[in-house]
């Protein structure tokens, strides 16, 4: 069972999200908070698998909450849930250590896929956000690819294989099945990759994988 903490200051939004998540019998909303500070208290009490966090909340906004969740509860996946799709918010959310970025205006199926992906240790960007990130990379494609290729060049062949699948949005379990590895071994590879590439989370590693050309661009658009 995937245990979810929902943090949003609008009761109607919380009700809508809770209703969508209820369509998956493997997902349970264990607690709800109307502001970031209350959300952090509930997170420490319930230790959820995934925290769905709105960006704009009173007392402590979603970006601050994401940073605090990363520090206090590293095992809890963080997915930002917002109506704002501008690049500024995407970049800030990823920099805060979020594992996913979901738009409230997106397809309800994206919400379910995103929660499951983050719970399994993966990363998830809604298609609109993924396209936005990749469009941003196009502006400095040559320089970015050169830097990324140099960084990826320090990885072992197996680590590059894991990074490519991570960048395609696969969870640790899915990567393990694809490469015939146990999940614990995949986790070890992912930890080593993040350290070698000097990135903070799986989303940054996934972006780097795309910059390095490890995965076809069309793969991201269809995930």
From TrEMBL:
**Domain of life the protein comes from:** Bacteria
The alphabetized UniProt keywords are: DNA-binding, Phosphoprotein, Transcription, Transcription regulation
Q: Which GO terms describe its biological process?
A: phosphorelay signal transduction system; regulation of DNA-templated transcription
Q: Residue limits of the HTH luxR-type domain? A: 148-213
UniProt GO MF annotations: DNA binding
**Which InterPro entries does the record cross-reference, listed alphabetically?**
CheY-like_superfamily (IPR011006), NreC/VraR/RcsB-like_REC (IPR058245), Sig_transdc_resp-reg_C-effctor (IPR016032), Sig_transdc_resp-reg_receiver (IPR001789), Tscrpt_reg_LuxR_C (IPR000792), WalR-like (IPR039420)
- The Response regulatory domain sits at 3-119
- Tell me which residues bear 4-aspartylphosphate: 54
Matching entries from CDD domains are given as: LuxR_C_like (cd06170), REC_NarL-like (cd17535)
Q: Which SMART domains match?
A: HTH_LUXR, REC
- The protein here is known as DNA-binding NarL/FixJ family response regulator
- Gene source species: Nocardiopsis composta
């Amino acid at each position: 069972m995937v245990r979810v903490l929902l943090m949003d200051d609008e009761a109607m939004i919380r009700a809508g999200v809770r209703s969508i998540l209820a369509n998956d019998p493997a997902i349970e909303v264990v607690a709800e908070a109307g502001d970031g500070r209350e959300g952090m208290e509930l997170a420490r009490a319930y230790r959820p698998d995934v925290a769905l966090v709105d960006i704009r909340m009173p007392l402590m906004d979603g970006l601050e909450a994401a940073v605090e969740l990363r520090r206090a509860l590293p095992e809890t996946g963080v997915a930002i849930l917002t109506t704002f799709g501008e690049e500024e918010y995407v970049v800030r959310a990823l920099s805060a250590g979020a594992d996913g970025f979901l738009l409230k205006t997106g397809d309800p199926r994206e919400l379910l896929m995103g929660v499951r992906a983050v719970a399994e240790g993966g990363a998830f960007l809604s298609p609109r956000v993924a396209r936005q990130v990749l469009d941003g990379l196009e502006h400095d494609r040559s320089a970015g690819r050169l830097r990324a290729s140099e960084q990826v060049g320090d990885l072992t062949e197996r680590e590059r294989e894991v990074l490519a699948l991570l960048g395609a949005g696969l969870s640790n379990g899915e990567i393990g099945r694809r490469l015939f590895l146990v999940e614990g071994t995949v986790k070890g590879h992912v930890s080593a990759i993040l350290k070698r590439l000097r990135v903070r989370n799986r989303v940054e590693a996934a972006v780097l994988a795309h910059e390095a050309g490890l995965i076809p661009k069309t793969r991201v658009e269809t995930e």
